[in-house]
Specification:
With 173 residues, the chain is α+β, with helices and mostly antiparallel strands. Helices cover 16% and strands 8% of the residues. The protein has three helices and four strands; from the N terminus they run ββαββαα. Strand 3 and strand 4 form a beta hairpin. The longest helix has 11 residues. Bound molecules: calcium ion (2 copies). The site of one calcium ion (CA) has 9 residues, from loops.
Length: 173
């Protein structure tokens, strides 16, 4: 599944580059400075299934496998996208980045992994997310990153979601 989107914020354009290993790398660079951290905790080499402590599809043994780490690409896709066919759970609030995002084999989300309103994917809901959100204010259409309740309009109902999660942090933040 193709998961693209662009965050338009003041002075910069950053995206959720879609389907590839490179896309995840770009996202990680955007989120933090990962220059000192290895990328091998992110996906399974060769097939790009994102690792997760909540479960990741093992296509060799055809079962869900639990990992010791979780990829930051889990629930890091465009907040305005539908989850598609991803495994439903209260923890799964956003579509995953990567090849399997939106599909039935999408990697599962650990509890508290990603606030819906953490538009900048930096692990906390704060003014930077409001900055990103405001660029979509009163926009209409599908797949808008600021459309947190996914009703094709960016308005106060979406802002209320940010307000309700103010300073909420990811478990890894
Ligand atoms: Ca997800
Ligand atoms: Ca909305």
């Amino acid at each position: 599944m193709h998961i693209s989107g662009t965050v338009r914020t003041a002075g910069r354009t950053s995206g959720w580059p879609s389907t590839t290993e490179a896309g995840c790398i770009l996202n990680r660079v955007y989120v933090r400075n990962y220059s000192t951290q290895p990328f091998d905790d992110t996906w399974l080499s060769g097939n790009y299934y994102l690792k997760s402590t909540a479960g990741r599809w093992d296509q060799v043994n055809l079962r869900w496998q639990v990992d010791s780490v979780t990829s930051l690409c889990v629930d890091a896709g465009n907040p305005g996208y539908s989850l598609g066919s991803e495994p439903a759970s209260s923890s799964n609030v956003r579509i995953n980045m990567g090849n399997y995002g939106g599909g039935i084999r999408a990697t599962k989300t650990p509890a508290g992994w990603r606030p819906l309103s953490d538009m900048t994917n930096d692990g906390i809901v704060d003014f930077k997310d409001v900055d990103a959100f405001c660029d979509y204010w009163l926009d209409t259409g599908s797949d808008l990153a600021g459309d947190l309740n996914r009703n094709s309009t960016v308005d106060f109902a979406d802002f209320a979601k940010i307000a309700s999660q103010w300073y909420l942090e990811s478990t890894w933040h």
